[in-house]
Specification:
The protein is mainly β. It is about 5% helix and about 45% strand. The protein has a single domain, classed as Glycosyl hydrolase domain, family 43 (Tachylectin-2, Chain A, 5 Propeller). Strands 5, 6, 7, 8 and 9 form a five-stranded antiparallel β-sheet that branches.
């Protein structure tokens, strides 16, 4: 039976884009959340007590002058790659275009080992450029099968789709 939902993020804070690391770090769950314009993390001992996240352990911030220069947020729960984590994240440019990039995180889930200089996915198709909100690809889920990354995404806040890419190719961009 489902329990009543409750908020994990604090009141009166611009806090969005929650994602959960699929494995505990020590005895805690690691949650990613976007505070204002950056990806933060916090540790919680359990997810049922109603305890809210209260810290911003800075993980990834915007890079001024780049494709992700205005704000960043998690786009899917990170994927385990050996003893590291692959995070797909969205970045917003100063022209309000939403693109996706990748970061390789250490085993602790908060240390950034590498980050793509260029986006790995951006709005190119007409249905990604025109809709409720123009120039948006925004993902909330990713799955790996063999070497193929399946990225489930919304386009222009109007349609949904799936894009595929070689996982090895993305990891090469991070090395």
């Amino acid at each position: 039976m489902w329990s009543a939902p409750f908020l994990l993020t604090p009141d009166n804070v611009d806090d969005k884009d929650l994602a959960l690391l699929p494995e505990k770090i020590g005895a805690n769950y690691l949650l990613y959340h976007r505070v204002n314009n950056q990806i933060c993390a916090d540790l919680l001992p359990d997810l049922a007590s109603g305890k809210r996240v209260s810290r911003c352990i800075e993980v990834i911030g915007p890079r001024r002058g780049m494709w992700d220069g205005e704000k960043v947020g998690s786009a899917a729960p990170p994927l385990k790659i050996g003893d590291k984590w692959l995070m797909i994240y969205h970045g917003v440019s100063r022209h309000a275009t939403y693109r996706l990039g990748a970061a390789l995180l250490g085993a602790n889930g908060t240390t950034v080992l590498a980050r793509t200089a260029d986006p790995i996915f951006e709005p190119l198709e007409d249905y990604e450029k025109r809709g409720e909100i123009a120039n948006v690809v925004f993902s909330c889920g990713a799955v790996v099968r063999d070497d193929m990354l399946f990225l489930y995404y919304g386009a222009a806040d109007k349609v949904i789709g799936v894009a595929t890419a070689s996982l090895a190719h993305i990891l090469d961009a991070l090395s």
